[in-house]
Amino acid sequence: SEWSHRLGGEIKDFQPSKMLPDRKLIKVISRQDIMGINAAVQAVEHSKMIAYRDSLAGADLFNEQTAIYVGSPGNKYFQQYDFIPLLAKTQGDMRSFANHLFDEVHPMWLLRILPNNVLAYTGITYGFKGPNHNVTNHAVGGTQAILEAYHAIRSGQAERAVVVAYDIGTEPQGLFYYEKLGVVSNRHLKPFDKEHDGTILAEGAAALVLESEASVKSRAATCYGEIVGGLSASEATGLFSIEADGQHLASLMGQTLSTSGINSEEIGLIVTHGNGNSKSDDSEALAIKSVFKQEEVPATAFKWSMGHTLCASGVLDAVLTTYALETKCVPGIANFQQIAPTCEGLSVSREHRELISNSYAMMINRGFASMNVCLVIKACE
């Protein structure tokens, strides 16, 4: 009751036994790991790649050509809470603490806190032995995992990759620190709105399967979208600060267009980071207007509807961006009312709008330490 910020995007119907069939595994991993593995399993099953693999004369080559890239939040404060009762009991006596450690703390504690659990168990579950990488980089970790997978496939290191990201933004101690930084709102998450005053944190996970064109054709897989290009960079301004004028982000957006081989006129949708923080929103809007000039490309955001899932947010946005392209719809921001002064000229709406056919989408993802990532995505024809 003493907390001034009590809003968060929490998974209410969280039932581990239904999310993972392996009950032994549930006992040795954390809540966030369960979400991440569950997302990976859903993506793999939806892709139908396992049925195809099992139809092959030998699965070894398939497994060796299947990569796993993960956006991981790393360790969380709650993973240290197992020590609290023993610390209280021993009253700061570290010798006594050490003597009773194995009696008081769960023997699987170390396994539960490994930051690469989702990566490891996804590979173990399916036998995937290709390249892998566990990216821990605040809110851009998931999007950078997509980029890593994209480059692995483009370079021939892998034919396909499972990409998954997950996070728990609603962890109490973490939320407390975000509140102290002044970046969360106790009212709403309203990107680019005159009343934007902070973000709302959430928990979640998302996963997708990236494949080479040859891999898609070989198994007649359904293709939903194509990663055309992407780049990441840091503004190098500080851990909690960003450039007010958005020029570094604008430069990254321009470079992303150039390396993707397209021009700004071909972008029909901009999926913004849109976290509801006024400084982030304003600088992002300025960057977009700098790159797209008077084109008024329809822009939207997704965090208003579910909260900011931090490391998971980039993969979530990529999945939703692909769906928007597939359905030719620019989703509205339902709680948008009046544009913030600095954001004027940005084409946002509370209503859904029709998306121009055969157009590309640019997706923006941002994180602490002034990190920026841009992706260009196209719907499969």
Which structural category fits the helices and strands?
Answer: alpha/beta
Q: Helix fraction? A: 25-40%
**Total of domains:** 2
Overall spatial form: globular
Largest sheet: 5 strands, mixed
Protein name: 3-oxoacyl-ACP synthase
GO biological process, one term: fatty acid biosynthetic process
Keywords: Transferase
Pathway: Lipid metabolism; fatty acid biosynthesis
Walk me through the structure.
The chain has helices at 16-19, 23-28, 31-47, 49-55, 60-64, 84-90, 94-104, 109-113, 117-126, 141-154, 172-181, 213-218, 247-260, 278-292, 303-306, 313-327; strands at 66-71, 132-135, 160-168, 203-211, 225-234, 267-271, 299-300, 329-330, 353-354, 360-367, 371-379. It has 381 residues and is an alpha/beta fold. It has two domains: 20-78 and 109-217, 3-Layer(aba) Sandwich (Peroxisomal Thiolase, Chain A, domain 1), CATH 3.40.47.10; 225-379, Thiolase/Chalcone synthase (Peroxisomal Thiolase, Chain A, domain 1). The longest helix is centred in the first third of the chain and has 17 residues, at 31-47. It is globular. The termini are far apart. Residues 1-379 form the Ketosynthase family 3 (KS3) domain. Keywords: Transferase.
